[in-house]
Write a structure and sequence with these properties.
alpha/beta, Rossmann fold, 2 domains, eight-stranded mixed sheet, two-stranded parallel ribbon, 12 helices, globular
């Protein structure tokens, strides 16, 4: 009887093991096939869509390569008070129709702000890839340098855009790099949701902020909420440690701040205003 019992248990164990392996393979397949849908929750706009904002702005187009058009919004300040330009890289969702409302946080501090929609976001066209995101950012930055000296340009990245902004700052010499809810790298973010999957091997997008940030020569500052459920707060702590900085030297911590709502906290605006006014 004992032998029969052990044999039956072995058969059950093998079945369970097979199910576990199949589920694992399925999860890996989903991660490979649908990673762009998870990463880029972009929305599209009709080409004739008319933006509406209270601030003075101009709609612009960039053509970094044939058959690619990058839509942008340029928000203007009083030319007699203008300090410089913010080049802004937004998060992974929606389009400029949503992101444009944040321009006031910068124009009120006498900075023009240039926001772009990534390929396949809003009115922008072209094929998405990590390489394309970096090259488009560089193309736009070259335009910025033709109109402002680098000592007047601040690069700002939010969420997804923090990796793009950091790479851009590493390759140039802007006045400052500002990062809102930055990640250490993409595989670590995804791993916090679904551990045990080899993301570093299967992800088409790596966004190695941890590598790029070591090459940045300009001053930096981060903003991060302690209750961020998308990009964990510890990501900013790890980046600070990588730079041999105390959190208090480089990070504005927003107690109870989440991933999408830092602009609702006075602490965020106080820190951002202080940074921009003294630059």
């Amino acid at each position: 009887m004992g032998i029969i019992f052990i044999f039956a248990n072995m058969k059950t164990f093998r079945k369970v093991l097979i199910y576990i392996i199949l589920i694992y393979i399925l999860l890996v397949a989903i991660a490979i096939l649908f990673q762009e849908k998870f990463l880029f929750r972009n929305t599209k706009l009709a080409m004739d869509y008319q933006y509406e904002f209270k601030e003075d702005f101009e709609e612009m187009w960039f053509t970094p390569e044939a058959n690619v058009r990058i839509n942008a919004l340029y928000f203007k300040t009083d030319s007699t008070k203008r300090k410089g330009l913010i080049v802004y890289f937004h998060g992974n969702a929606d389009d400029l129709r949503r992101w444009g409302k944040y321009a006031i946080d910068f124009t009120k501090n006498d900075y023009d702000i240039l926001m772009i929609d990534y390929r396949q976001f809003g009115k922008s066209t072209g094929t998405l890839s990590e390489k394309a995101l970096y090259s488009d950012a560089s193309y736009v930055y070259e335009w910025a340098k033709r109109h402002f000296s680098e000592s007047q340009i601040i690069v700002y990245g939010r969420s997804l855009g923090t990796g793009i902004a950091t790479r851009l700052a590493a390759e140039n010499k802007p006045k400052m790099l500002l990062l809102e809810t930055p990640y250490f790298n993409l595989s670590q973010v995804v791993n916090s949701y679904f551990p045990l999957i080899p993301y570093s091997s299967i992800l088409k997008y790596q966004f190695r902020t941890d590598l790029f940030i070591r090459q940045v020569q300009c001053p930096m500052h981060f903003f991060h909420g302690t209750k961020d459920a998308v990009v964990p707060y510890k990501s900013s702590l790890k980046l600070a440690a990588l730079l041999n900085k105390k959190p208090s030297e480089i990070l504005t911590t927003i107690p109870n701040g989440e991933h999408k709502n830092l602009a609702e906290f006075e602490a965020y605006h106080t820190a951002l205003d202080s940074l921009l006014r003294r630059l």
